[in-house]
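Re: weekly structure request thread

Next one in the queue (57 aa):
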Amino acid sequence: MSTHPIHNNLNAFHELAEVTRTLSKVHRLILPELISQGERWVFRLAECAGLSIANAS
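Done, posted below.
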């Protein structure tokens, strides 16, 4: 019984799906941008990104 070549890449597809799901959250893109601009306290990151402190930390 042979497997279809697509099945050989199934794990890679699952990982790619996880990455795209993560990046689809806008706040997960905003936080690294804010951090790249310089050090900030968590409460300031939260304020700038429109998040709660718990979610920003």
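The CA atoms of residues 15 and 21 lie 10 Å apart. DSSP finds five helices and no strands in the chain.
Next request, please.
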